[in-house]
Amino acid sequence: MTTFDAGAVPDLTGTTAIVTGATSGIGLATAHALAGAGARVVFAVRDVGKGAEAAANTPGRTEVRELDLADLASVRAFAASWTGPIDLLINNAGVSMPALSHTKDGFETTFGVNHLGHFALTTLLLEHVTGRIVTLASQAERLARLDLDDLGRRQRPYRQSRAYNNSKLANLLFTAELQRRLTATGSAVLANAAHPGLVATNIYRRTGPRRPADLFWALAFKLLAQDAEHGALPVLYAAVADIPGNSFAGPSRFAHLRGAPQLIDRTAVARDPELARRLWVLSEELTGVRSPV
């Protein structure tokens, strides 16, 4: 079993890493680890004030730039202002909306932020990337029922868990198709995905009336949830370990809920090349962003 921990991250002096949603949780822990290893870390965040506070408490070389993944104009502006190589692009930011809502471009918010926003960002920045792209996925994809004909959740009732699960499946399909395209062009850039396990972060905080299932989650968190620093380990593993492209990293223990990172499996649906291709083409159409690969 691997013993990978934050100390296993190599010297990253002279490299540049972008971490989306780095103001708290796994994103902040990832940024801390990368900056501590010598990387220049760019906090790509919606709230610049919170980003500045987080960056100020991060040792090492940091920078804060505004990025709202729920607004494609903001994504385009971020990418247009970028110059220089990107050694690591960490697509970390994620939401799980309790009720149906939409991004500024009219997409269902959870899918719009977790997949489409990162799809557009990655595609627009791809010409600058020289190293790896790591996208936060989840084994929640095992419960997904992705309907490419109803991504806006208009034909079926909205369910928070279903929307989140579908977005995480999309993250894995995106990673697989991105790696396929990179390989086909002879690029040395690697695209990987990471499942952080069960982590006590804000994305799991529930609002509104309590349900019977909440008692189960409260007990599961008490017994199994790990902190953000441990949740960031699969992300770091996917970013720096000697593993092939389209790898999926996650915790090694308790059904991949916690523990040291290792390579883990994904469902047959997440490995479906035709579904990945169809999602990619649809994502290009929805965002208006065409892939350079």
Walk me through the structure.
Keywords: Oxidoreductase. Belongs to the short-chain dehydrogenases/reductases (SDR) family. This is NAD(P)-dependent dehydrogenase, short-chain alcohol dehydrogenase family. It holds the Pfam family adh_short. The protein is α/β, with parallel strands linked by helices. It has one domain: Rossmann fold (3-Layer(aba) Sandwich). It contains nine helices and eight strands. It has helices spanning 25-36, 48-56, 72-80, 109-125, 160-184, 212-224, 228-231, 233-240, 273-287, and strands at 16-20, 40-45, 62-66, 86-91, 129-136, 190-194, 248-253, 258-263. It has an eight-stranded mixed β-sheet, sandwiched between helices. A hairpin with a 4-residue loop joins β7 (248-253) and β8 (258-263).
Overall tally of structural domains: 1
List the total number of helices.
Answer: 9
Strand order in the sheet with the most strands? 3-2-1-4-5-6-7-8
By CATH, the architecture is named 3-Layer(aba) Sandwich
Report the sheet with the most strands, covering strand number, pairing sense and barrel closure: 8 strands, mixed
Strand content: 15-25%
What is the end-to-end distance? 36 Å
Mean pLDDT: 92
Overall shape: it is globular
Identify the CATH class.
Alpha Beta
Rg over CA atoms, rounded to whole Å, is 18 Å
Helix content: 25-40%
CATH superfamily: NAD(P)-binding Rossmann-like Domain
What string, H for helix and E for strand, traces the elements in order? Answer: EHEHEHEHEHEHHHEEH
Show unreliable segments: none
CATH topology: Rossmann fold
Specify the structural class: alpha/beta
Number of strands: 8
